């Protein structure tokens, strides 16, 4: 498959890759999958690859050079079929019959390793292919982590299916049972029903589609974890495309993309069945198309930004936090035309921004205005949480300014075992801990050593990102001043919002990175921008900084991959023994 074709249609490629995952491993219980199922999935993927790469040419007109590509493709499908047939027989053996998630993981890993070996032998490595391998490896890790984790493990406010307890699961089940009709009662009466409905409608539609195809409902509900994986894959692609819009190349774009692709926070949140990942995906799309509009101010780009912002607000209210940075770019563009005295361009920009409001406002406000008019739900409503064991009694001053080293002696968010209770109370430290290992206690039950490794790799990259941000903001490069303002303002808004949220609701559950996920993207981009500005500078401090940053990102990525593979293998073996 042509790497250029993938770059031209990255979202289409990502969607088809996810479809391959879903058809292969989600619609069936793994112990019911046969080699025929695997071959069907591979045939689907092979046909897609052919259409994607050569859809405009007939086979008889393909030149000799391109016939080799078709032979490689056919050979890959045959190889995959043989591998799947072999895995199917291994899968049916008594040794691993109880838990065989290793089957899809081994196949996909072998495929990526084989591709990497091929590129090495043929000496065809380049920036685009490195990024592709990073994206594929990240997707495989997401899939493996999803399949080896227990459904709804260590997730917040899920409630559960078939128990009528509300929560995110209950919200999905309600829409499924009522044919996608929104709740006709005050959403405050049901736990978590106050959230906008888009994520839950998508999940309910997926449930309905599966059951119409004959999939048992108990299997179908386990598959609601797959859409968040798709959102994560798209967000990872967005991070790369945003890097390219900023003009990052070579090591700069590779480092910034790898941080997002292998961030433990994305691994955890990408498995959550709530609306966090969908909202984050739309936030990333808003950022991408805002930058594209600034470079190419067409109605098409600004309407895409409006659409993604509106859909984001229909996913989660926190998407509103990206509105001020977007408005800053719009305002800067208008002021620039006033200074240039270009009235024609000013009017065109102003009309486009009116069109932005005309599309974004109804989508953004629909759910909130509906609930206010019909049920008196105030704008910005968030239910109070009353969970005594999660309450944080420390003062505001202590929570914000206490960075005692003892807080780092336990790498996870909280500890409740052997009669010892510890709740992390500093929001910034909690942000780092949950970025490294989520809550940690339930996930990594086999010890704290893994928590220390991931925590300190995250802290190192976070400190580099902060230093790079200061360096880039105060550098003399005026060509990217609006980008600096955009991401610096977004950084401040998300950080202050997170701190305020933690202080207003002093509970452990609010001290999670899922409430400030864009900070990871912003930090990664500032690392990329910093590396870009350091290229060509021969001063020892710049050379050292480049190598230290690159090495830190490699260690960060390697640790993340190791941790999640180790976790998956550990859980798999625990079921086998």
Write a structural description.
This protein has 577 residues and is mainly α. The chain has a domain at 3-125. The chain contains 22 helices and two strands. Strands 1-2 form a two-stranded antiparallel sheet. α6 (127-148) packs antiparallel against α10, α13 packs parallel to α15 (323-340) and α15 runs antiparallel to α16. The longest helix is centred in the last third of the chain and has 37 residues, at 540-576. The chain is globular. Mean pLDDT is 82; it is low at 55-60 and 94-100.
- Structural class of the helices, strands and pairings? mainly alpha
Largest sheet: 2 strands, antiparallel
Q: Tell me roughly what share of residues is in helical segments.
A: 55-70%
* Average of the residue pLDDT scores: 82
- Count every beta strand, where a strand is a DSSP E run of 2 or more residues: 2
Give the overall shape, derived from the CA principal axes: globular
Percentage beta strand: under 5%
Q: How would you write the strand order of the largest sheet?
A: 1-2
Order of helices and strands: HHHHHHHHHHHHHHHHHEEHHHHH
Radius of gyration: 24 Å
- Work out the helix count: 22
Distance between the termini: 41 Å
Short description:
This protein has 577 residues and is an all-alpha fold. It has helices spanning 3-8, 10-26, 35-54, 64-91, 102-121, 127-148, 167-177, 198-212, 217-222, 226-245, 250-261, 264-269, 276-295, 299-313, 323-340, 343-375, 396-401, 427-437, 449-473, 481-504, 518-534, 540-576; strands at residues 414-417, 420-423.
